[in-house]
Amino acid sequence: MPSNQNQSSNKEEHIIKPYARKDDETAMKAVTTIHIFHNTYKSPVCQCTHRVPAVIFSSGGFTGNIFHEFNEIIIPLFITSRHFRRRIQFVITDFKPRWFRKYQRILTHLSQYEVINLAGSEIVHCFPAAVIGLRYHDNLAFDATEIPKGNSMNDFKHFLGESYNLKIKTVMKMENPRLLLISRRKTRMILNEDSMVKMMEELGFEVIIATPKSMSNLDHFANIVNSCSVMVGAHGAGLTNELFLPNGAIMVQVVPLGLDWASSTYYGRPASEMGVQYLEYKIEPEESNLYELYGQDHPVITDPMSIFLQGYRAARAVYIDGQNVTINLVRFRETLGEVLDFLETQFV
Questions:
Q1: What per-residue confidence (pLDDT) applies to 54?
Q2: R_g (Cα) of the chain, nearest Å
Q3: How far from 61 is each of 55, 64, 108, 130, CA to CA, in Å?
Q4: How far apart are CA 14 and CA 37, in angstroms?
Q5: pTM to 2 decimals?
Q6: What angle do CA 19, 220, 134 make, to 5 degrees?
Q7: Are 78 and 151 in contact (CB under 8 A)?
Q8: Any idea what DSSP says for residue 246?
Q9: What is the mean pLDDT of the chain?
Q10: Which helix (H) or strand (E) holds 130?
Q11: pLDDT at 35 (0 to 100)
Q12: Is the pLDDT of residue 33 over 60?
């Protein structure tokens, strides 16, 4: 509001950036500030009066990465708005058309009203109440004690099943082991992927290779994930798709050098709450391209923590952006043996 319009002596203003990762300075730079005024200006004339509350949030931040989209927007949005039973109006700042199209099914299952693009609306909207910002609990996580009605990850997965019309609830409904391999094309690539796929097929798996392009249409890809009993991939955002696996499925995360904590925190621990069995394949130093690049005695190999102590950017350049892996097929075959043993128990 212009500063010369009917100011009150009881001026009070609150500033909020409606994005979950408020502790991340990089993400918050892409989030528009919302100003809340109390007894400051004369209220403008309502041009569109709504009968339901608004939930105001940003689709900025780290939009474009499926982990961050679910972790900081979709799950917090579910936590914040599910109990309104679709009688809620979404008002989005930093509106991203591609993000909106990608998650339109979820948005329409949480609200029966068309979303309002705040930047694209030139009229004055009035609401009986508003929630500004979204509740965030932890990485791909729910704290049922803090949620109205006690919604949990199980409730969220049920909601995803309804939103995307997922047919398979449990691997017990599946006849043959179907394995989805998340294929990375830029960083943390599995360099001997073709040999790995051949071995998987020899063990009896029907293998589906998921490329970044095939994963871009979530409406379609969610059902592909749901049709699989196993998902395998190197640490990265694509593993967020474990959300669509049926109960009793297995997710095998290939853990590159130096990424133990991130692998467990972002994808390992949340898996059990999703009803997914989690296995890790931690590579040996010799399986990383960093071994040849730096040598066996370099701190990058022998002491990754010392690199992380140099700062996140330094560590990211090495372990996240600069690392690829060549899987030891003999060792990995043993991991797949564990997968098959577990799947057999699901059919007893």
A1: 97
A2: 23
A3: 17, 9, 22, 21
A4: 7
A5: 0.92
A6: 15
A7: yes
A8: P
A9: 92
A10: strand 130-132
A11: 86
A12: yes
Q: Which of 298, 255, 256, 261 is nearest to 279 (CA)?
A: 255
> In this structure, are residues 259 and 322 in contact, taking their beta carbons and an 8 Å threshold?
no
| pLDDT at residue 145, as a whole number | 77
315-336 pLDDT, tens digit per residue, is 999 999 999 999 999 999 999 9
pLDDT band at 40 (very low <50, low <70, confident <90, very high): low
Q: Cα(242)–Cα(130) distance, rounded to whole angstroms?
A: 33
- Locate tokens 């989030």: which residue? 31
Question: Closest by alpha carbon to 73, among 53, 52, 93, 58?
Answer: 58
pLDDT at position 270 over 90: yes
Q: Within 10 A of 177 (CB to CB), how many other CB atoms are there?
A: 21
According to DSSP, the β-strands at 34-38 and 12-16 are: antiparallel
What 3-state DSSP class applies to 313? Answer: helix
- The identity of residue 79, as a single letter, is I
Q: Which helix (H) or strand (E) holds 16?
A: strand 12-16
CA–CA separation, 266 and 269 (whole Å): 7
Count CB neighbours of 267 within 10 A.
26
Q: What is the CB neighbour count within 10 angstroms for residue 104? A: 14
DSSP secondary structure, 39-108, as one string: SSSPPPPPSEE-SS-EEEEES-TTTT-HHHHIIIIIHHHHHHHGGGTB--EEEEES--HHHHHHTHHHHH
Instruction: Provide the 3-class DSSP secondary structure of residue 33.
Output: coil
pLDDT at 147: 65
- Measured between alpha carbons, how far is residue 126 from residues 50, 159, 259 in Å? 6, 30, 48
Task: Give whole-number Cα distances, 286 to 188, 289, 294, in Å.
Answer: 15, 8, 11
For residue 125, report the phi and psi dihedrals to the nearest 5 degrees: -100, 140
The C-alpha atoms of residue 197 and residue 14 are separated, in whole angstroms, by 55
φ and ψ at residue 300, rounded to 5 degrees = -55, -35
Q: What pLDDT is recorded for position 348?
A: 56
Q: What is the pLDDT of residues 295-309, one digit of tens each?
A: 999 999 999 999 999
Tell which residue, 288, 114, 308, 290, has the closest CA to residue 190. 288
